[in-house]
UniProtKB/TrEMBL annotation:
Disordered: annotated segments: 438-460
Subcellular location(s) of the protein: Cell membrane
Alphabetically ordered keywords of this record: Lipoprotein, Membrane, Palmitate, Transmembrane, Transmembrane beta strand
UniProt-recorded Gene Ontology molecular function terms: efflux transmembrane transporter activity
Membrane topology classification: Lipid-anchor
Protein name: RND transporter
Domain of life: Bacteria
Coiled-coil spans in chain: none
Organism: Hyphomonas chukchiensis
InterPro entries noted in UniProt: MdtP/NodT-like (IPR010131), OMP_efflux (IPR003423)
Amino acid sequence: MEFFAETVDAPAEWAARGVAGVAPQGDWLSQFNDPLMVGLVNEALTNSPTLESRAALVRASEAATRIARSQRRPSISGSVSAGVNSTSTTFGGTTDRSTDGVYGVGLDASWELDLWNRLGSGIGAAEADLAASQADYDAAELSLAAQTSIAWINLNAALAQERVAAQTVEARDRVRTLTERRFQRGLADALDVRTARSTLAQAEASMAAQRQFTGEAARRLETLVGRYPNAELQAPAEIPTLEAIMPEGNPALLLSRRPDIAGAEARVTAAGLRAEQARLAMLPSLRLTASAGTNTTDFADAFDPERIAANLIASLVQPLFTGGQLDAQRDAAVAQAEAAVANYASTALDAWREVENALAADTFLASQEDAQARALEEARLAEDLAERQYTSGTITIFNLIDAQTRRLTAESQLVTARASRATNRISYHLALGGGLPTGTASTQSAKSNSDTDAARSGRS
């Protein structure tokens, strides 16, 4: 009984735009030209408790595989017993008691012949579970790298927004000072002064709120890299400017490089093998069992080969399994296999959707970034002109505040657009199943653990 994952056919090219035909391996961080980001990613991969948990689950799967393999080997158990046998004899009104030591040795052995490869199916399922567990580890590693990179971008964006908030306070304070001077010279009224002071207070409130967001972004990143979250992590408040994604490649290649798809495929294999194992469990099984034991009052006789051989019993057991329980177990295993197939198809569709979304978003975000940059330049020129005109008394304070607001809003929106494009680029590589920087302590530790367990498995 075999189960194959079926999905919708992949198109020859991406609908939104292209993607490199070869998955980026270990170099996708280089496009950001940010050594600090790379260092934080490596620190997160080294210190993450989540990865430690995933690595432990991989080791547990490796142990489960060894357990499954042991089912094909004979099992032998032995026992040694020692006791006292007390007897009493009455003769002529006199009772004599005697106490003798009783010693026993027992040996039980059993071995199931895998006539229909039922045990072999269980071993295959365990090995597929191990592959799925390793894929889960790889997916968690890639996800952590992406989360750390995005958290770094968000921290820089928060600091950049904090810088805009500080500029807002400075601009509003400049207007307040200018308005108060004009009021003292009789060129402005009290309404202008109150308005200037109100906008300054609002800017100060926004500054406090932005500092709170910055602290939360810093603590989020510190938690990811395994540091105490005290919001002391420093960042330059710079967001990278990115080039466009090159259009080439085939969406079908995605199925061979995403860890979550590899894990889903391994689970399809495991579920199919378990369904086969449940079907084979309905067939007769052949088990060879043997037991030997002695019981003697002489300790040395307990290990006498002749006595053990005399008590040796060889038996063949061929139980026949009938009843609704085995039918239900088979039906449940088949249903689980069908669910695994459907989950694989869903995972593949989600993967294609994530890449298509990221590709389309990159195009729109690039256009948005360009437009916001032009809007900022025009807003700066308008603000300079408005400040000169307000000083000369040709426009009102509301015109000046409006010009300042447009400039500050444009600057804030440019930061948001650049940060969104950078985080979308990281999500794009996450959707592609892109590789990680090589040589990290996490990767080396996982490989070392895998090699150690593989060697142990070979000896067992």
